[in-house]
Amino acid sequence: MRSDGRLARMLHVLVHMALLGGRETSERIAEMLNTNPVVVRRTLGALRDHGIVASEGGRGGGWRMAKSLDEITVLAVQRALDGGPILPAATSSDHPSCPVERASNAVLVAAHAEAEARLVEIYGATTLSEIARAAMETAKGQA
Amino acid sequence: MRSDGRLARMLHVLVHMALLGGRETSERIAEMLNTNPVVVRRTLGALRDHGIVASEGGRGGGWRMAKSLDEITVLAVQRALDGGPILPAATSSDHPSCPVERASNAVLVAAHAEAEARLVEIYGATTLSEIARAAMETAKGQA
DNA sequence: CATTCTGTAACACCACTTGTTACGCAATGA
DNA sequence: TCATTGCGTAACAAGTGGTGTTACAGAATG
């Protein structure tokens, strides 16, 4: 089905960056994400525009956290990546004046709005520090 | 963003078919949906496989409802169109053994599962007869 | 002033829905 | 019997959106 791995990737890399503490270059982050430095710049750039990370060019530059993990919610990352609805209702617009089409669309829009509200509630209540804690517990359990 | 107008289109056309009562050809349904007969056959075919509509070939053939509107939920139509998750979590799989990636994915999967549960609850509680009633009230109000 | 970074444009690729053409098969009815 | 009607399906192009990649400009450092 549909996929947009950006949110998952950003959560992943933000936690790593915070745990590592210092500055990371796009090159190194790309290795963490098993991808390309340009993709990293593109995606982290959106987070920088929302004050989650900061970037510096030139020698010794790279990316660093602009907030601590407990100040960043999953919702904030999502919003930085995409300002639109998270779960847009897929409506039809074949005959916009048709009452049946409108009623069908209205049902879908209302349902998606409720589902998105639930998702936003959870995203907004989850900080990245919780993810970091869960990860460290898992790692400890495996060690 | 993402779009998959099939569900909206099927709700639309099912209500119309029920209101019209008789048999409709792919050609006429395509006109309702402002699309192509082949697309109609493709999509209605999935509903036929789940007992929502029935099709007959040959002269005088076409499509007819196999159930009444109050026996069909939005959820049933959705399931007929796609058996998988409605709101799959977009996870990453760059480093499957990385605890941080796993923890990030787990958060997303859990959140999406809750949102989908809410969506399924609403879809399952909404029958097409409710859409038909809403559409007729709208039409009446406009007339 | 060379090096090391980010910033960004440009393009190909992949996956998926949609639109379209073409053709096969079944059922009807003269 | 046979032409007509309508579904069933394969095949292919188009549009969309994230991803991967190359190339190059700009800025900061030492």
UniProtKB/TrEMBL annotation, chains A, B:
One of its GO terms (cellular component) is cytosol. PROSITE patterns: HTH_RRF2_2 (PS51197). SUPFAM superfamilies: Winged helix' DNA-binding domain. One of its GO terms (molecular function) is DNA-binding transcription factor activity. Pfam families: Rrf2. PANTHER family: HTH-TYPE TRANSCRIPTIONAL REGULATOR YWGB-RELATED, WINGED HELIX-TURN-HELIX TRANSCRIPTIONAL REGULATOR, RRF2 FAMILY. This is Transcriptional regulator.
